[in-house]
Specification:
The structure holds 2 protein chains of 2 kinds.
Chain A lengths: L9 E6 L2 E6 L5 E3 L3 H11 L39 H12 L2
Antiparallel strand pairs in A: 1-2, 2-3
Chain B lengths: L7 H13 L13 E7 L2 E6 L2 E6 L5 H13 L13 E3 L2 E7 L2 E2 L10 H13 L11 H18 L5 H9 L16 E3 L8 E3 L7 E3 L6 E3 L2 H12 L5 H13 L12 H26 L5 H13 L13
Antiparallel strand pairs in B: 1-2, 2-3, 3-5, 4-5, 6-8, 7-10, 8-9
Helix pairs in contact in B: 3-7, 4-8, 5-8, 5-9, 6-7, 6-8, 8-9
Chain lengths: ~100, ~325
């Protein structure tokens, strides 16, 4: 994805489970729907012990270089492979071989 | 068929038949089927009835393989135990014999035994390694994959090569097999993926790990790093990753902390296995003269995202 302001490529970072796109040019930040609220919630929890979240957000921490998982960017991840056969074949090959 | 040894499969078939039916002679052949299970440059595997013969990679060190076999024989609750303690030479290859086990069904999305895999790895990693066991060969395998890519690139360039080689260059030397692995060494499998699990006895016995070729001492997070890399690349859904990681932590596996961020330990091995997978994918696509498919591209894309992360989000972030 490209920055709407300066059109440089944007890189995805994961901060406390919130996916953040930052422009490699102007360093501007893009948040998906709901991510500002997620950040605000995290900030509010900073000074008090976190109660068990009613809805786990996100499912698990991931490295900053990881792909956006389901729910972000409208994507469904490559594991949603109920589509065509070739995709499943490649997916299975990758999980079953050195 | 591997072109360099067309006689290997018939020879292996004869050997495995003799091991499966020790009382039969050549004049009294059995009616069981023999089938090749794998025929790759690094391994040829033939099954006959309940017995499997594996010809190990050319150049396999006999003493090292024997030490690895001894670990499998000693840990039958974790690793499929071999039928014989010593490898036998067949046509210049070292051959080992195993009981047949039923593999994971690659076409059944829900068949992957994540909890069992995690529990087996935790048990393996908690087992003290016997003296004299060689290092686990995970980093060496990653280096070999990158070497294979580099050799393919000498014939033809590829746009994905840049990000893959840059991600490789950014890894610490130990993950590139240039210096010994750090930390207290654990007993590791070295090449964990879903093809390395079988149920024994087939079809519904307990799950066991197979393939001791890369087994040895080293950084135990390497064994968790393929699932971690699949998860990071978007190939494994978060819930399956969480089931795997959570079971490993609850089983007392030493590779990751129980409470703190597991990615502190997983990051380097998961990057290395992502690079290894991407390097092999690009090399194979070059050899076949085809474009990368969607899954392979996802792994290359992950390599491309690794480069800008070293300097991370700048602290002086402003709008």
């Amino acid at each position: 994805m490209h920055c709407p302001k300066c059109h440089a490529p944007m890189h995805t970072y994961n901060r406390n489970g919130v996916q953040i796109e930052q422009c490699s040019g102007c360093r501007g930040i893009f948040l998906d729907y709901g991510e500002l609220e997620a950040l605000t919630q995290l900030e509010a929890q900073w000074s008090k012990p976190a109660p068990p979240a009613p809805q786990a957000y996100p499912a698990a921490p991931a490295p900053a270089w990881g792909a956006p998982h389901g729910g972000h960017h409208g994507g469904h991840g490559h594991y949603d492979h109920h589509g065509h056969h070739g995709h499943h074949k490649s997916w299975a090959h990758m999980l079953f071989s050195s | 068929m591997t072109a360099d040894s067309p006689a290997l499969i018939p020879a292996l078939t004869a050997e495995v038949r003799a091991v499966a039916h020790p009382d039969r002679t050549g004049d009294d052949p059995c009616a069981c089927d023999s089938s090749p299970l794998a025929d790759r440059p690094d391994a040829t595997v033939v099954r006959h009835a309940d017995t499997v013969a594996k010809a190990h990679a050319p150049g396999t060190d006999r003493a090292e393989l024997a030490r690895r076999l001894a670990v499998a024989a000693r840990l039958p609750d974790v690793l499929l135990p071999p039928l014989s303690p010593a490898p036998a030479p067949v046509l210049g290859r070292l051959v080992t014999f195993w009981p047949y086990g039923a593999p994971v069904d690659p076409d059944d999305r829900d068949a992957a035994p994540w909890e069992d895999t995690a529990a087996l790895l935790a048990r393996l990693h908690r087992t003290p390694a016997p003296a004299g066991l060689p290092p686990m060969r995970g980093p060496a395998k990653a280096a070999r994959a990158v070497a294979r890519l580099c050799s393919a690139l000498r014939a033809e360039p590829h746009p994905a090569a840049g990000p893959v080689l840059a991600a490789w260059a950014a890894l610490p030397a130990w993950a590139r097999a240039e210096v010994p692995m750090p930390g207290p060494p654990a007993l590791c499998h070295g090449d964990l993926h879903l093809g390395q699990l079988v149920r024994h006895p087939a079809p519904d016995g307990p799950w066991r790990l197979i393939d001791v070729d890369d087994l040895g001492t080293g950084v135990p997070a390497w064994d968790l790093a393929r699932p971690a890399a699949w998860y990071a690349c978007g190939l494994l859904p978060p819930d399956e990753w969480t089931r795997f990681l959570g079971t490993y932590q609850r089983a007392g596996g030493p590779a990751v902390p129980v409470k703190d961020d597991p990615w502190a330990a997983l990051d380097v091995p998961a990057r290395a296995l992502t690079v290894q997978t991407a390097a092999l994918a690009v090399a194979k696509a070059l050899a076949a003269g085809r474009p990368l498919d969607e899954v392979e591209q996802a792994v290359v894309d992950a390599c491309a995202r690794m480069a800008p992360i070293s300097h991370e989000l700048a602290p002086e972030v402003r709008d």
